[in-house]
Amino acid sequence: MKSKWPIRSLLIVSLVCSNILVFGLSWYSLHRSKLQHEANARTLSQNIARAVNREVADGMEMVDLALSALGDELEHQLLAHGSIDLPAMGALVNRYEQRLPHIEAIAVTDAQGWILIDRTADPRTRVHVAHREHFSRHQERPNLGLIVTKPFLLRAPDRYAMVLSKRYDAVGGHFAGTVYAMTTPEYFARMLSRFSIGPQDAIVLRDADLGLIARYPSIADRVGGRIGDNKVSERLQKLAASGVESATYDATVNSDGIDRIITFQRMGSTPMTVLVGLATEDHLSNWKQERTMTLGVASGFLLLSMLLGWIMLRMLQQAMAREDMLAQHTDAYQSILATTLDGYLSLDGRGQVRDANPTYCRLSKYTRDELLGMRIHHLTTQEDAARTLKHIQEIIEEGNAQFESIHRRKDGSLWNVEVSTTYRDVPGGQFFVFLRDITERKQAETNLRIAATVFESHEGMIVTDANQVILRINRAFTDITGYTAGEVLGQTPSLWKTARQESSYYDAMWAGIRFTGMWQGELWNRRKNGEEYPAWFSISAVREAAGVTTHYVAIFSDITQRKASEESLMQLAFYDPLTKLPNRKLLADRLHQALASSARHQHQCALLQVDVDDFRTFNDALGHEKGDQLLQQVAKRLTACVREGDTVARLGGDEFLVLMEDLSAQPQDAANQAKMVGVKVLAALCQPYTIDEVEHRRSCSIGITLLDGAKIDGIEEPLKWAELAMYQAKEAGRNTLRFFDPQMQAIVNVRASIEHNLHRALQENEFRLYYQPQVDESGRILGFEALIRWLDPQRGMVPPGEFIPMAEESHLIVSIGRWVLEEACRQLASWADDPATAHLTIAVNVSARQFHQDEFVEQVLHTLHHSGARANHLKLELTESLLISTVETVIGKMNALKSIGLRFSLDDFGTGYSSLAYLKRLPLDQLKIDQSFVRNILVEPNDAAIARMVIALAQSMGLSVIAEGVETVAQRDFLYDMGCHNYQGYLYGRPMPIADLTRLLHPVMQATC
To answer: Which residue range or ranges hold the PAS domain (predicted)?
Structure first.
């Protein structure tokens, strides 16, 4: 009995220690597991935040690119024409809206904030946005780039919007307006809903001031869920104020009271912040189940160990008897157990180890003495203990069994075993257990399951051996390429190789794989149906421990749609949509590169500006559609005239630029090379154009400037030089070419100065009206022609010939013409009260640009009404250039004014090319013989014949006729004999100011009375 008490004490201590160990290990395992679950949740939260950041940044970048391209086009139109082609810009804006599904509308404003283009606006009302913050910020600061506003409430109730805007400038860098895109928080909410999150998780997008933009899922019916709401925790406010880019922390959200792991991340390129909150309860749910199971097993283990301890104490004597029996085993049996590759344990009926062979000791890292007396559940994991007890009961009932289990080594590491057990029904029971280590096999099975799951992804996968022979493909490979496994297994990837990429590309790819073990890049492949497509590949080499490559694994995806989207944006941003030629932006980039190359290699470049002659006339006469067809044919001919490395670009309208590179280093030789191309272009563009089976002929004017990159800083000057040379070619008669002359720049500077001074002259009232008499054959004054003069403070009196052409080109002629009309009507009204002057008329010259204004008729009627002048004493002098435009519109305006008594005279008749068929339809009152015919009428038969023809034509049409430029009595008598009885010229008086005119009128009127 004395020997049993130490055994009993040892048994009790063992039971207590084993339970303490089990519960300690359970707590440690649960603690480690909880930390791992929390770490996984933090990583997931950070990954979702980065994905949202990237998604928003990509969308903003596409909008930025589109707005930049539209702004460039607006600036070009303002530079080239001084105004915006609203129909063309509207069509371009529409194309961008179709390519940007996350944008509801794109709009363009002018410098005052009035919206010029917006398909969503009511066309019957004008919308003003100057009060919006983004507009004023652009107006005040020219280099802000893209502005993203906070959500703001539209006029429609409960609807918010956000604006992404950029500035565009007029000539000289002055603010011209904004182009902006409008999106909605609903777009961001839809974007957030595409991310897979748990039922209590949340993704929130806030602006720079933490105002709410979007939340998924929505909580609009709760506090904190309304757009713009910035009620956030004090911790989040401090975090935002600290300036950190990203942080992850635990918090309880006020809006719903849920504990979450929250990741805060700023968006680098956009004034937004993303918050991703993962509910702690959801992400620790698996851990809580694990905790419940572990504590249950540990508790069961406690109860079971107490029960087994009691049983073992009862069976102590039987165990000692069994030990005696086991001691009688033969040496042969022990030898077999010692040499087998499987582990062996002998257990009594209570699961206590009575013997162990060397193999099990080696595998478990226990000594035989340590194993003896241990219970089988001490050698298994806590999770496997209950299953082991269940198997023991089955073995007792069946006599033997096979199953898998997990054992724990002495150092705590786990190993998988396959157990074969036989039970012997002897007093106390006896188990003979053979255990085989299957850890490597189980790991291999796990790896295969993981690999199989990954292999069947949405991306194509290929596995080859070291010789690139295909061993396996996945289903996505077949979906993408059309090839089945039976068609490619045993083949090599050269089966779908294309000729788009040279062999050197593939050599570099394989060199990278051999050196680093992997490669990523774009490859062009061929589908089974022959279609070629781009794919993004990631190729990895699989190597043994010794570094020998055994396999290659390639993962790829079809990027056709992505490439198409990129190409579409590139086309819109850098190419003209009509001709497909490079636009101004792409030309500027290539010109920068050409100048840099010229400076580096010391060779010359040339810039040719090509302008189609009289294109506006062609466009107005035949319509914009045929004009576009003509421009497309011009683009093809230009491209055919230049070398492969040269650039042909369209600046807009009928203006094209040709950039020639790598010309001779000698300026004279380079000029000859450029001239040869220019002559070739002149010949090509003069050939007939067939449009709708009708032939048309056009010519062009070309300006050429040579460029030495070492002497030029920037591209603006070369572009101006080419344009100046082109205008010189037009002034030389068109259908020719001219090289840039520095004197042209001086002329342009003078013209720019005159244009600036003309603006000032209008503001400072520096213009004066002079009046030249118009008389009949008896010398009686019938009226006067109003002639404008400019009294410049520095230059004195400036004649009209020096500033009227500039006023025409700069569109100032419209404002100047309105001023002349108002002054003349004011003078007529003042004469109406004086019987001596009440019968006099005033003739006012009207330019074609002024007459073609839509509101011209209303302006004349308003001026007459406001001044009080009588319409039948006002005569408008028109030129034949009016008839180049739509004749019906001209006739309509003339009839409207004719109906109130106003009279019309056709000035400079005989100098133009108008059709007589049009002439007879005009409601004219008078034809005016140009002074160029009167000047030499006595010595030049042709001038006399033209004058005679004009007089006869006027008589046949029932019109009066007047000759201008009459300076001698002989000229007057000659005209009188031909039937012309009204005259104007120095013979009767020079143009004079109103003061001199008043002194002239009263004596004459007294004489006639």
So the answer is: 329-399, 444-492
DSSP 8-state secondary structure symbol assigned to residue 920: T
CA distances from 297 to 24, 290, 386, 560 (A): 13, 10, 7, 56
Q: 41-301 belongs to which CATH class?
A: alpha beta
The residue length of the chain stands at 1009
**Which CATH number is correct for 575-740, 3.40.630.30, 3.40.50.720, 3.40.1280.10, 3.30.70.270?**
3.30.70.270
Residue 716 CA from chain centroid, whole number: 25
Q: CA-to-CA distance for 542 and 544, rounded, in angstroms?
A: 7
The two structure tokens encoding residue 298: 């540990």
CATH architecture of 315-443: 2-Layer Sandwich (3.30)
**DSSP-derived secondary structure for 209-266:** T--EEEEES--TTSTT-STT-----HHHHHHHHHT-SEEEEEEE-TTT--EEEEEEEE
In the chain, where are the structural domains located?
A: 41-301, 315-443, 456-565, 575-740, 752-1008
Query: Could you tell me the two tokens for 941?
Result: 């038969």
Q: Which residue has the tokens 């045929």?
A: 626
Q: Which residue has the tokens 């000698």?
A: 666
The CATH code of domain 456-565 reads 3.30.450.20
Q: How far apart are CA 204 and CA 664, in angstroms?
A: 62
Q: What is the rounded distance in angstroms from the CA atom of residue 957 to the CA atom of residue 742?
A: 52
Please give the angle made by the CA atoms of 906, 909 and 912, to the nearest 5 degrees: 115
Instruction: Please check whether residue 56 is in contact with residue 191, taking contact to mean a CB–CB distance below 8 angstroms.
Output: yes
* Positive or negative torsion for Cα 744, 585, 576, 164: negative
Least Cα distance to 86 among 126, 122, 115 occurs for 115
3-state percent helix, strand, coil for the chain, nearest multiple of 5: 50, 25, 25
| Amino acid type, 753 | S
Q: Scan for tokens 């069947």, then name that residue.
A: 456
The rounded distance, in Å, linking the Cα atoms of 543 and 558 is 27
Does residue 958 come out as left (phi exceeding 0), alpha (psi in the -120 to 50 range) or beta? left
**Degrees, nearest 5: CA angle 414-419-422:** 145
Order of strands, edge to edge, in the sheet holding 518-526?
470-473, 460-465, 549-558, 532-543, 518-526
Return the CATH architecture of domain 752-1008.
Alpha-Beta Barrel (3.20)
pTM of the model: 0.40
Biggest distance spanned by C-alpha atoms of the chain: 169
Cβ 700 vs Cβ 715: under 8 Å: no
Residue 803 · residue 791 · CB < 8 Å: no
Helix (H, G, I), strand (E, B) or coil at 777: coil
Look at phi and psi of residue 796 and say left if phi exceeds 0, alpha if psi is from -120 to 50, else beta: left
470-473/175-183 β-pairing: unpaired
Tell me if 821 sits within 8 A of 842, measured CB to CB.
no
Q: d(Cα 344, Cα 245) in Å, to the nearest integer?
A: 60
Q: Which pLDDT belongs to residue 556?
A: 92
Three-class SS of residue 968? coil
Beta strands in 529-681 (DSSP E): 532-543, 549-558, 604-612, 647-652, 655-663
Output 727-733 pairs: Cβ under 8 A, ≥24 positions apart: 727/703, 728/703, 729/701, 729/702, 729/703, 730/611, 730/613, 730/701
Walking along the chain (1009 residues) 10 residues at a time, the average pLDDT comes out as 59 79 82 82 84 84 88 86 86 87 88 88 80 88 87 73 91 89 87 82 86 82 69 83 86 78 84 88 79 81 79 65 52 62 82 87 88 84 74 76 84 86 81 85 69 68 92 90 92 89 90 89 92 92 82 91 79 86 91 90 93 88 89 95 93 92 87 90 93 90 91 87 91 89 63 82 91 94 94 88 83 92 95 90 92 92 94 91 72 92 86 63 91 92 91 91 95 95 94 87 49
